[in-house]
Amino acid sequence: MRKLIIFSTLLLLSAVVGCMPKSSEDGHLYIISTNDVHATIDALPRLATLVAVYEERGEVLLVDSGDRVSGNAYVDDAAEPGVPLIEIMNDMGYDVATLGNHEFDKGSQVLDAMIDAAEFDVVCANVTAKSGAKQPLHYTVIEKMGVEIRCGVEVGKDVTIQELRDQGYKAFYIAIGCQGSRKAGVEGEDAEGVISAVDHLYNVHALGDKMKVGKKVVIVGGGNVAVDAARTSARLGGEDVQMFCLESRETMPASDEEVEETLAENIAINNGWGPKEFLKDENGKAYAYRDAAGNYYELNFGLGY
């Protein structure tokens, strides 16, 4: 018997297989996860084909990590907003889904309608519904032929991988989320005042209102994380927050709605800027940003990427 165990400090979804299904061709459980679908329903037939392929091989667990809506007028402006996408997910056989921030875009009544329409569990550990709105499950456990779940366990401290191997466990699924960031490899990115967007958002989460930014903030990047960093910086007191990205407005990785909301908050988006360097003073503090074409922007606090 093969054992698979999942440890997670913050439990939103725990799905673990104890012994392999007899009907499976190769004795595996396949976990297929979608994220940031943003109502791109034209991509779902390809996903359905992928699911069908793996269902021929064994058990499939189909999950979604949130931000399913806001991105397609057919879905977002339907008579029941969001529900057309939920109906497709029902047909595809989704097992469970968490909530993203865009699930709240149209208010609690629309969210309630989407939860009611879902034939799968909807979970969210950090939402407490008020004023009669529906309360999503704080967590759900999906059992597949026997389950063992241990919560509040720190792997490496309370138990090691080797100890688990000694107990007979043969396979391990480690779900720790995106913890790191990447740099662009440009000169001056080690200057004081230049920080990755992921680290910036982590600091905001840890420090809350105590987190401070300069009056002028530059965000290098055009994706959803960059947008989050920009809007967060504006709320922390940044008076002149500007985004610089290589892509055109039409090809930015960030969703259209995120871009529109960013512009509505008077945050400038400068397209066609490829990062070259951050200029720093004699004390090692960044004071300007320059792109590959030589364009120059003065700053007193930089964020990226």
Q: What is the H/E string?
A: EEEHEHHEHEEHEEHEHEHEEEEE
Low-confidence runs: 1-25, 301-305
Q: Give the helix proportion (percent range).
A: 10-25%
Assess the beta-strand content as a share of residues. 15-25%
What would the average pLDDT be, to the nearest integer? 80
What's the number of helices?
A: 8
Please tell me about this protein's structure.
24% of the residues lie in helices and 22% in strands. By secondary structure, it is α/β, with parallel strands linked by helices. The protein folds into 2 domains: 4-172, no CATH class; 194-304, FAD/NAD(P)-binding domain (3-Layer(bba) Sandwich). The strands form 5 sheets. Strands 9-16-10-11-12 form a 5-stranded parallel sheet. It has a 4-stranded parallel sheet with strand order 3-4-5-6. α7 (224-235) links the parallel β10 (216-220) and β11. α6 (197-207) packs across α7 (224-235).
Topology:
Layout: E1 4-5, E2 13-17, E3 29-34, H1 44-55, E4 59-64, H2 73-76, H3 83-92, E5 96-98, H4 108-117, E6 121-123, E7 140-144, H5 161-166, E8 171-172, E9 194-195, H6 197-207, E10 216-220, H7 224-235, E11 240-245, H8 256-264, E12 268-271, E13 275-280, E14 286-291, E15 296-298, E16 302-304
Parallel strand pairs: 1-8, 2-7, 3-4, 4-5, 5-6, 9-16, 10-11, 10-16, 11-12
Antiparallel strand pairs: 13-14, 14-15
Helix pairs in contact: 6-7
Describe this protein with a few key phrases.
globular; 305 residues; alpha/beta; 24% helix; disordered C terminus; four-stranded parallel sheet; FAD/NAD(P)-binding domain; 16 strands; five-stranded parallel sheet; 8 helices
